[in-house]
Amino acid sequence: MTGREPILRRGIDRRGFLALAVAAGVAGCAPSGGEATVRLASGEVGGFYHAFAGLLGLAAGNIGDVRIERVATSGSQANLALLARGEVDAALALADSLRDDADRVCALGRVYENYLQLVVRSDSTIGSVADLRGTRVSLGAEGSGAALTGERILRVAGLDPHADVLISHRPLAEAVAALTAGEADALLWAGGVPTRLLAVPSRMRLVDMGELAAPMRELFGPVYDRVAIPADAYPGGVSVHTIGVANLLLAAPAMPEEVAASIVELLVWHADALVPTEAAGTQFLDGRSLISTGSIPLHPGAAAVYRRWHG
């Protein structure tokens, strides 16, 4: 995508999502019938990665070809490290987190767009990234994709991350608590819209970052898009533009082709069950974008499914 603002989609209703989430949380029994178990590195509890991985695991369990074991982590960079060490079989990661790992992983698909969300207190005078000079900012949890992307955003805005801003790395719940308590001035989060922990009316607001999308593309590559967050995404919010980053579902090259194919079949033919209601993903499991994994090659098992699907 180049400058296009994706369309927001809603999935199952909230009651259905809660039921699925509860079921996914207890789906930890041993696999039956010799089915393969795939350990999937997801993200923080309460975030979009974690919710998506839970729904993917539930869908897999219902079909019975593969069992997906959700692993909670701090985010993209931690997920890639786990995948490289062989501690998980698959991982979710922001496309810009793939630097040295690009030739050591395969893609199962580009599953959705992540939104970079810069959050401040509602009474803050911060109106742009440049206004963060001299402030205290949480740039995602240690090991998250936001930690990497956040430093890039600061640099594009003319700030030195190591001299102009006091940076901390907190998990989202801790970052929100620090912000509301006045112990931090801003937080950056990469996730779906809306993110439940950020939906606090009259206490927090989003800062527009749309103007930085083009220079981010120019300096760091085409993985960044200018995307819109509508006014009704958060209670009492206003429409803002921000930076979107493609999110990839990755696998180790050693994953058997039939296992990779089983997971991709879930993405292709059971997409409606994989969209958490609390986060309206953009380009989520869209047939036109699933195969758009950039420089990351598709796993052979995934490529076979896409060939059958596209004819």
Supply database-style keywords.
10 strands; 29% helix; disordered N terminus; single chain; alpha/beta
Helical stretch tally: 8
Total number of beta strands:
10
Query: Could you describe the largest sheet, including whether it forms a barrel?
Result: 10 strands, mixed
Instruction: Report the uncertain regions.
Output: 1-33
**What general outline do the C-alpha atoms trace?**
globular
What is the element string, with H for helices and E for strands? HEHEHEEEHEHEEHEEHH
Summarize the topology.
Blueprint: H1 14-25, E1 36-41, H2 48-63, E2 66-71, H3 76-84, E3 90-94, E4 106-121, E5 136-139, H4 145-156, E6 166-168, H5 172-180, E7 186-191, E8 204-207, H6 213-220, E9 224-229, E10 240-251, H7 257-269, H8 300-310
Parallel strand pairs: 1-2, 1-3, 5-6, 5-7
Antiparallel strand pairs: 3-10, 4-7, 4-8, 4-10, 9-10
Describe this protein's structure.
- The chain is α/β, with parallel strands linked by helices.
- The chain contains eight helices and ten strands.
- Strands 1, 2, 3, 4, 5, 6, 7, 8, 9 and 10 form a ten-stranded mixed β-sheet that branches.
- Strand 1 (36-41), helix 2 (48-63) and strand 2 form a beta-alpha-beta unit.
- Helix 1 packs across helix 2 and helix 7 (257-269) packs across helix 8.
- It is globular, with a radius of gyration of 19 Å.
- It starts with 13 loop residues before the first helix and ends with a helix.
- The relative contact order is 0.20.
- The model is unreliable at 1-33 (pLDDT under 50).
